[in-house]
Write a structure and sequence with these properties.
- The protein has 9 helices and 10 strands.
- Helix 3 runs antiparallel to helix 4.
- Helices cover 42% and strands 23% of the residues.
- The protein is globular.
- The longest helix is centred in the middle third of the chain and has 23 residues.
- Strands 1, 2, 3, 4, 5 and 10 form a 6-stranded antiparallel beta sheet that branches. A 4-stranded antiparallel beta sheet has the order 7-8-6-9.
- It is an alpha+beta fold.
- The structure holds (3R)-3-hydroxy-3-methyl-5-(phosphonooxy)pentanoic acid.
- The site of (3R)-3-hydroxy-3-methyl-5-(phosphonooxy)pentanoic acid has 17 residues, from helix 4 and helix 5.
Length: 305
């Protein structure tokens, strides 16, 4: 396969928000994740007309993707997208999946989804050490998913009876997933008697949130999200900035709000009680950068050649 010519191709993958269960998913509990309508597009052009790029994240991810797909021919990579980076919205997993899709299409192949998610997980290890795989799975499949880490990981699509509006609020502080995950892992290992019951409590919230989502019970879902935030805060994952955004969202009438992703910065997810736009406007009026999204809607276009 690697001997056949490459041709120009494009691959796309979307980001994600974790509705509930980040961090505990690394410790063997389920999480609920939803694909965003924002994402990353990678364009592959055969031949390499550019100077050698510096050894940054993109070039390491590209080299690993080419290695996984046994592609040896030279090519150039262009990346485009509308997904904020370093905000816990799955940009590195979306990049990995878009790269794999673009490279597979450029070499005349279609990667099945199981392989795509597994290879994206491999690429994510370059950035995050020991990721659960939730981001790569969300970037591969989209939709709203129940996810459990493992070998192999398990996921299940949750079919919502109506799309769910969410407001994603960007803090001013980018986060570092590997640092936040690593430091919680150390605290949990040092004091399992303290942390394991809290992880178990978050897992109960995740299970109840699944029922609330399937029953389209926004007020129950919101309450569970806010409780999840409180427990993540108790675990040392939040920051005063994220807590303040949660308070503004709740004060503006959100049904619930929590940090989303690894924390220590990044984004807050607010669940509007009604339409998303009035809540987003209240957050903007309070000086926060945010956007409204809808999860559980139609899947996105994935590759073009
Ligand atoms: O990198 P982020 O912010 O999207 O966080 C991913 C979710 C974590 O549970 C914190 C890590 C993981 O690998 O599941």
């Amino acid at each position: 396969m690697s001997a056949s010519a490459l041709h120009a191709a494009e691959g796309r993958a979307t980001g994600k928000v974790i509705l509930l269960g980040e961090h505990v998913v690394v410790h063997g509990h389920p999480a609920i994740v939803a694909g965003l309508d924002r994402g990353v597009t990678v364009r592959i052009t055969p031949g390499d007309t550019r100077p050698e790029p510096p050894a940054d994240g993109l070039s390491r991810a590209t080299a690993r993707a080419a290695e996984l797909l046994a592609i040896q021919q030279p090519f150039a990579v262009d990346v485009d997208g509308d997904l904020p980076i370093g905000m816990g919205l799955g940009s590195s997993a979306a990049l990995a999946v878009a790269l794999l899709r673009a490279l597979a299409a450029a070499s005349g192949r279609v990667l099945d989804e199981t392989t795509t998610a597994a290879q994206a997980h491999e690429i994510e290890r370059l950035f995050h050490g020991t990721p659960s795989g939730v981001d790569g799975t969300a970037a591969t499949y989209g939709g709203v998913l129940w996810f459990e880490a493992g070998t192999p990981p398990h996921h299940e699509a949750l079919t919502l009876t109506e799309p769910l509006p969410l407001v994603v609020v960007l803090s001013r502080t980018p986060h570092a997933t590997s640092h936040t995950v690593g430091s919680l892992r150390e605290r949990a290992a040092a004091s399992p008697r303290v942390y394991q019951p809290v992880f178990g409590a978050i897992a109960s919230l995740v299970a109840s949130a699944r029922d609330a989502l399937l029953a389209t019970d926004r007020s129950a879902l919101g309450e569970l999200m806010t409780m999840n935030h409180g427990l993540l805060r108790a675990c040392g994952i939040s920051t005063p900035e994220l807590d303040a955004i949660v308070e503004v969202a709740l004060g503006a009438g959100a049904a619930g709000a929590k940090l989303t992703g690894a924390g220590g910065g990044g984004a807050v997810l607010a669940l509007p009680a009604g339409d998303g736009e009035p809540l987003a406007q209240a957050l903007r009026d309070a000086g926060h950068d945010c956007f409204v999204t809808t999860v559980g809607g139609t899947p996105q276009r994935r590759t073009t050649t």
